[in-house]
Design a protein that fits this description.
By secondary structure, this protein is an alpha+beta fold. The protein has twelve helices and 26 strands.
């Protein structure tokens, strides 16, 4: 039976660029057709920004990669036009359980409040995620949108200039050159682009190894995240179990530091470990096995002139907490609208420095949380282990101890506090929707707030009428007025608090730029000027 990751989705095909006498210039070239590169391409194409994606492969990824996609990623997928496909195929879950030894000590609900379109998480194999992103690109191409994926196109060299980057691309028919006004590197943790520019990561590598196995089996386990500290089947170590579509289950087993990785990956060594966990009578087949080591590192800067890094090429975290791919989608979400405004001449190049500020802030937050998770999961001293075990024991019966349990604090979107793009903030409005924060979803007129926002600047008037369409500082701004009789309780709680009315300026990436308790065109105009980076020049 042919598997999805064996089928070429974007096979090599000769392009006109290869026959041109001089290198052809493209506004944006993306290196890497993984999830982040594909999402970046869709975002730009939807905004009518011509984009070319280069990848040395011609199919979706194979093996044990990202599976947990967060609520914020699903909201980004909705804006990109493929959220429904992801959720319909994925395994939806909100509940997690933590075990110490053979007993459950703690459980948590990642989305305890009502009034959200999307769940806290879905589990979905990365190859399905990539498939739906590629299918969305095909749909955009059918609409005449300017996006192209070039499989079998390996980037061999880069030459940077003040106003573009010259890219040398190797194919089965020989090499050719092209030029990029802006080059976005989404080529993964071992990024060749990063090496070509002689750049590196800074951060920590943890001295531990984990076995990751995707197994196909029939099981009656509920759709939850199960994490064990010191389970009887993996003594003095940890374990994790997740359900995926198609009867596939993800299992992580901590192995320790001093191991032979090649030996541990062999089926004759993996299968006995899994039988210890699942039981001798459980039938399963191995789909994929690998060994990984924790790393919590990032580049010091994500922007280097006209080359910008996103996703794993810019930062790495441990897989506990689902912060890798999810933070990469937030990178793409942050960068796309800024590139468009710069290419349109509506914003200065300095706006792209705010990408570095905001997403480096996000990376630091993820690295901090991921490092704390790793230190809790794998104590580095006897005293640390005693403390951890005491917290786990207490958490079974005492609520105060449960926030201290850290089996991988799960991914949440970054709030860009201190961003140079943040404008006016009326602090009498709810803290959760302050400038820099991602827009909180809420029921609205038989639908959902986020579905009404789109991908442009938007004025949200809660109990105040705002212009349906206007132009401020040369930037189109749409308006959405919600009258008092249309308020859902969730919308009022998240956007008004005790206020009678409010106006929010929302960025194209659905983060709050500024907010007030009344509408004033001049104040909104000033906030737009700040949000598009004109104060950064």
């Amino acid at each position: 039976m042919t598997k999805l990751f064996e089928v070429p989705l974007y096979p090599y095909k000769r392009t006109a660029d290869q026959d041109a006498q001089a290198p052809v210039r493209h506004p944006v070239v993306i290196i890497g057709a993984g999830p982040v590169g594909l999402a970046m391409a869709i975002d730009l194409a939807q905004a009518d920004v011509p984009v070319v994606v280069l990848d040395d492969n011609d199919k979706v990824s194979v093996g044990s990669r990202a599976i947990c996609f967060s609520k914020r990623s699903l909201e980004i997928f909705d804006r990109l036009g493929c959220g429904n496909e992801m959720v319909e195929k994925g395994v939806v879950w909100n509940l997690g359980k933590v075990y110490f030894g053979d007993r459950q000590v703690y459980n948590f609900n990642l989305l305890p409040e009502d009034g959200h379109k999307r769940p806290a998480f879905i589990n979905l194999q990365q190859y399905y995620c990539e498939l739906y992103l590629v299918e969305r690109i095909r749909a955009l191409q059918a609409e005449g949108k300017p996006v192209e994926i070039r499989g079998g196109n390996r980037v061999e060299n880069l030459h940077r200039y003040d106003d573009h980057t010259l890219v040398t691309v190797e194919t089965q028919e020989g090499a050719y050159n092209l030029e990029a006004d802006w080059l976005v590197a989404c080529d993964g943790a071992n990024s060749p682009t990063r090496r070509m520019l002689d750049l590196d990561f800074v951060g920590r590598v943890f001295e531990d190894n984990f076995l990751i196995a995707d197994v196909i089996m029939k099981a009656d386990f509920p759709t939850e995240r199960w994490f064990w500290f010191d389970p009887p089947f993996n003594k003095d170590q940890s374990a994790l179990l997740h359900k995926q579509p198609d009867g596939v289950w993800r299992i992580d087993l901590q192995l320790g530091w001093d191991i032979d990785k090649e030996e541990e990956k062999k089926p004759e060594n993996v299968i006995p470990r899994l039988k210890q966990m699942l039981g001798e009578d459980v039938d399963f087949d191995l789909e994929w096995v690998s060994i990984y080591t924790f790393q919590c590192r990032r580049m010091e800067q994500f922007r280097h002139g006209r080359v910008i890094f996103a996703g794993d090429s810019a930062h790495q975290v441990s897989p506990f907490g689902a912060r890798g791919a999810n933070s990469g989608f937030q990178d793409a979400d942050n960068l796309g609208w800024k590139l468009k405004l710069v290419l349109d001449g509506s914003a200065p190049e300095a706006l792209l420095d705010s990408y570095s500020f905001e997403r480096e802030l996000g990376a630091d937050e993820n690295i901090l949380q991921s490092s704390r998770s790793t230190d809790f999961i794998t104590p580095k001293s006897e005293m640390s282990r005693i403390f951890r075990d005491a917290v786990l024991d207490l958490s079974e019966h005492h609520a105060f101890a449960r926030p201290l349990v850290n089996s991988g604090r799960l991914s949440v979107p970054c709030t860009y506090d201190g961003s140079p793009l943040n404008g006016a903030d009326d602090k009498k409005l709810p803290d959760r929707t302050r400038p820099g924060s991602p827009v909180a979803d809420a029921p609205l007129s038989g639908g959902w707030l986020l579905d009404r926002l789109g991908g442009d600047f938007l004025l949200l008037g809660c109990g105040i009428e705002v212009p349906a369409v206007t132009e401020l500082n040369g930037v189109p701004v749409k308006g959405l007025t919600v009258a008092n009789d249309e308020f859902s309780p969730e919308l009022a709680q998240r956007y008004l608090g005790n206020a009678a009315a409010a106006v929010y300026l929302i960025r194209p990436d659905q983060h709050v730029a500024a907010r007030w308790q009344h509408y004033d065109r001049d104040m909104v105009d000033q906030a737009i000027e700040k949000a598009i980076g004109r104060g950064l020049q």
